[in-house]
Amino acid sequence: xxxxxxxxxxxxxxxxxxxxxxxxxxxxxxxxxxxxxxxxxxxxxxxxxxxxxxxxxxxxxxxxxxxxxxxxxxxxxxxxxxxxxxxxxxxxxxxxxxxxxxxxxxxxxxxxxxxxxxxxxxxxxxxxxxxxxxxxxxxxxxxxxxxxxxxxxxxxxxxxxxxxxxxxxxxxxxxxxxxxxxxxxxxxxxxxxxxxxxxxxxxxxxxxxxxxxxxxxxxxxxxxxxxxxxxxxxxxxxxxxxxxxxxxxxxxxxxxxxxxxxxxxxxxxxxxxxxxxxxxxxxxxxxxxxxxxxxxxxxxxxxxxxxxxxxxxxxxxxxxxxxxxx
Length: 326
Prior knowledge:
7-stranded mixed β-sheet, Dihydrodipicolinate Reductase, domain 2, Rossmann fold, 326 residues, 6-stranded parallel β-sheet, alpha/beta
């Protein structure tokens, strides 16, 4: 049984990962560490585990692996500490806010000979897996273009503080789609053009919408909208959609469309009840297996770096008004 710890509950995804660990018979959530002790204690109580206030003692508590779900800019320091302690690491996306930090994270894990995974749960969504299989089979022939979205609600808090998040919606909601397209096509991005800004919210101080136009190897054209445009009354946090135009047809997929519409008079809003599989569970299950087997996870640190490179290029483009090479 893999013994896993969670470092920081700053990111809301920590709750989903903790619930998955408690669901998996082959895993045990052994401990929580958080630089916000109150938040850490509350999370440990909620998920039936122990809070350890000292990071070194936390890393020495018999863990096989750790999940890092801190504020974006703190990823590097936490991953480096976990790697030095010999722990396998699953790091929340984006892997880092700069290319230099992403490379340093990879180097630290390589030096320590520990596995490093980036949290891209969309790879474990059955509809997206089917799209990848269709592309790999060659059934649709040559790929020409892709139109993608990742629109969500504004998380607020530290996400809207650049010194902690490193960027707004463009950073938060580009990395998933960039990773999916790399994974599905086997191609790398070559250039990015981006326009972004604070267009939805008042006084947010961050970009809440980004319009990206990109190209991948072989001339595959990509357009992508990354936003925090969903209102509070929207049924869910957001979406991930892809429409791929190919030689022999068009593939359209909504990653989170395995749902029922629910009209809840208690909440006085429409809601979605998801009946499909849980991509987070697939991600955590694979990471747990990599810890047990002491092998590299299937979603790697390099995957995280490549997505960071695209996002950093997008911000450079938005600032300069020019196309930026990846």
